[in-house]
Amino acid sequence: MGIRTVVWNEFLHERENDVVRGLYPGGIHETIAAALRADAGLEVSTATLPEPEHGLPAERLGRTDVLLWWGHKAHGQVDDAVVERVAQRVFEGMGLIVLHSGHFSKIFKRLMGTPCSLRWREAGERERAWVVNPSHPIARGLGPAIEIANSEMYGEPFLVPEPLETVFLSWFEGGEVFRSGLTYQRGAGRIFYFEPGHETYPIYHDPDVQTVLRNAVRWAHNPAPAWVDVSDAPNVPYDKARETLEPKGASLHKAGEAGYR
Amino acid sequence: MGIRTVVWNEFLHERENDVVRGLYPGGIHETIAAALRADAGLEVSTATLPEPEHGLPAERLGRTDVLLWWGHKAHGQVDDAVVERVAQRVFEGMGLIVLHSGHFSKIFKRLMGTPCSLRWREAGERERAWVVNPSHPIARGLGPAIEIANSEMYGEPFLVPEPLETVFLSWFEGGEVFRSGLTYQRGAGRIFYFEPGHETYPIYHDPDVQTVLRNAVRWAHNPAPAWVDVSDAPNVPYDKARETLEPKGASLHKAGEAGYR
Amino acid sequence: MGIRTVVWNEFLHERENDVVRGLYPGGIHETIAAALRADAGLEVSTATLPEPEHGLPAERLGRTDVLLWWGHKAHGQVDDAVVERVAQRVFEGMGLIVLHSGHFSKIFKRLMGTPCSLRWREAGERERAWVVNPSHPIARGLGPAIEIANSEMYGEPFLVPEPLETVFLSWFEGGEVFRSGLTYQRGAGRIFYFEPGHETYPIYHDPDVQTVLRNAVRWAHNPAPAWVDVSDAPNVPYDKARETLEPKGASLHKAGEAGYR
Amino acid sequence: MGIRTVVWNEFLHERENDVVRGLYPGGIHETIAAALRADAGLEVSTATLPEPEHGLPAERLGRTDVLLWWGHKAHGQVDDAVVERVAQRVFEGMGLIVLHSGHFSKIFKRLMGTPCSLRWREAGERERAWVVNPSHPIARGLGPAIEIANSEMYGEPFLVPEPLETVFLSWFEGGEVFRSGLTYQRGAGRIFYFEPGHETYPIYHDPDVQTVLRNAVRWAHNPAPAWVDVSDAPNVPYDKARETLEPKGASLHKAGEAGYR
């Protein structure tokens, strides 16, 4: 069985804007899914905002190994219950790859705990994403940098926590820099944020960008069994302690009682 | 002007339970506030759950440098709007010190982005909090370890992100270990989580614990002006770019338009 | 081809001390090698201090994927040239697993850049190594903690840099704690320090400890091609810059000249 | 008493090259020292390579709080014993600020444990050092970026460990990026690497660069008493353990014996 991968897209720009539809006729998710399918070890499907539960019912998420997330103008329309469900699956071990304007998605802000704000400019300028960690699995098969002829500028400061690893740093023609590839871990789940990928440019057709996405899915995949009780805070009774223990002092809790949350 | 410090307490156990009231007659917040006032450089006040807006209206938060947070059984009663307000102030530069059972507070989970779960046992066992980073400002004036005769056990795994720094690691009589002093930064705000401090034990009367709290307030204080627009994502028009830039390619946005959130 | 794994041991205690020889008749390296061979994907051999170049000539290191290092009383006898050679191979991508008293080996201190000092006691006390990052590949197949009936105590502070990840934290019967499993990256090479494993106790016969060692070899293996010029600092001439560039200002260097080191 | 600050310079280019002497008539160290003296809280002196013990005898280092290091063409002439002495003082708590070509100094490589290699080009191109962590004490008083009209390009990958914090990221006219301001801790000592500062350009006369240097000295200063035994590994005898302990099992060491190193 391959790595069960779901590409999520809000799928609005492609239906409303001719330029975007011209670049991504089936939607950004289909372009990305096709790129991922070049790796025969990935089982790729898609989900979009307009579907019931945004295409991410609990049962489906429960058998998803890695989720990619592209959203932009409709972050606010994503149901909070679905966001919590995705977060819980990340804690349990599902990988998450957040793309471009997904920096402001509810799920990314939920997992970072920060504003995830940045500076931006849509002027079709040149971007060069340098590989600063060439030995990282996500950079496998790349040269020193990815050249992107037309990109949206994202500039620092980028309000995220210090990452586990910095994989890419981008140079922009207009004079800015950006930490464009960052890794995190939250619970058992690995998270990769990747900045290149604006809807009005053909960035997801770029072979290097597609290589990054395939690498990232394999990197984010945690083969361990789902850690289903990751959010629980179990009581360890004194007579189950690993060392012999006599209870002392006062207590608010009765034996076996659940803790407060 | 001193460091404007607010000690927040849900203030329920002390009014409902004789043991807790006996240990902390004025409430845990008053014991902590008195300890902090031993540092003449701190301007200390308190706030509690039952007050309007939990004692944390926007105006007061706006002139708070460091906030300490103690909560346990009423995390769910804290208003989400107040939680967001506190989070925004942390991003702007307010320090936050989260105490003991505050690991499950809304504000700590909000800023960590993880479940913040752990294992626990209330058996009055011995805890020894080792200083693993003796040169850290928070450990100033301490010996190799803080001895706590009776403590609630908190055990690993503790579901938080890898910290910026690990300051304390605790040993428990029943056989567990815990990362009991951890630092983080979120936006311009410094965060310190400190595990010792259960309501049924006199831990906040311990001189070493009080030293830690005073040190932590000074460490968490960011003297920089508040970063009030930290959560904004401003557009940088092409003609304001630091390098000369000619716009290219298609665009969804009109000049000067705000980005999506 | 499997992961080419070399187990290095100074191999002195086993020849000088009856207790150690009784526990590890062929040497600690042979016990570890046998444990690793239970994973058919590993090609395991050994090397020891008394061999020419300590069994680690350049050619052999060049085809080693992961090196395990056990040393104790003869750190000072390890040739500096061999240490530099091993360091360079780590930078190029070779994994390194440093065991127990190897905390004071030249190679570990070389790669950490810190004293690597700690507190210790050889009293055969109980150790419990808690898994604090259960989703980490190195912890695969373990329960919540590894119980070690007799161990040498290693206590904090442990003078190493903040790790990339903390995988294990140990509890000791005598009252100390220790960060007993830590990961680092140096250049393209992954490093894992694992504390359990004293020569006068049968720790390397423990099934859980053996599981950790097998997991660690797989985790430390970097399948990328060796980054052979990782230590070079190449000049990028102005006419090879990715952006058009006209040289300006004064210069100390002539075109094409090598930089200073 | 102010923060005792020593500016170290190899002081060769200024005596050999007219351009450099024109920019820094008294040597780079005097320009930097003058800039630091604008902060009355700093007690600033200088030291250079040609002095006995490079101006850094043990007694002087012992009363130095923060050391700045500028070297380029004579890294190899720095005595290894002085390097070890500086490293030990960093572990004890002395702050260290490594400047520009000091990336290849013995002391920086010693403390990083990595090659510290990078790409470079001396073409007088424009550099823009963006502040990515505006709330960091080192960035106090700066705008969004430092503009440097003529700079030497340093490009990624920069072979250092993942930093504690990334404070500056630089954009170069020729198309590269670089992590130009990084913090580390080693033992009790704080380390800041700052890339801008080439000898053939007047970078150390730039007001923003001077602000960074003053801020960095204050940030790197650790007011705690020197941790003089930071590199020791003391034995904790079983009868001095904090928990009651009966020795068990075999032992190589006699009671009170020093450990191996």
**Residue share in β-strands of chain A:** 25-35%
Order of helices and strands of chain A: EHHHEHEHEHEEEEEH
Largest interface: A-B, 70 and 70 residues
The CATH topology annotation of chain A reads as Rossmann fold
Task: Walk me through the structure.
Chains A, B, C, D: It comes from Aureimonas populi. Chains A, B, C, D: Pfam families: ThuA (PF06283). Chains A, B, C, D: This is ThuA domain-containing protein. The structure is a homotetramer of 261-residue chains. Chain A has 261 residues and is of the alpha/beta class. Chain A has one domain: Class I glutamine amidotransferase (GATase) domain (Rossmann fold, 3-Layer(aba) Sandwich). The first copy, chain A, contains seven helices and nine strands, in the order βαααβαβαβαβββββα. A nine-stranded mixed β-sheet of chain A has the order 2-1-3-4-9-8-7-5-6. Chain A is elongated, with a radius of gyration of 21 Å. The interface between C and D is large, with 69 and 70 residues.
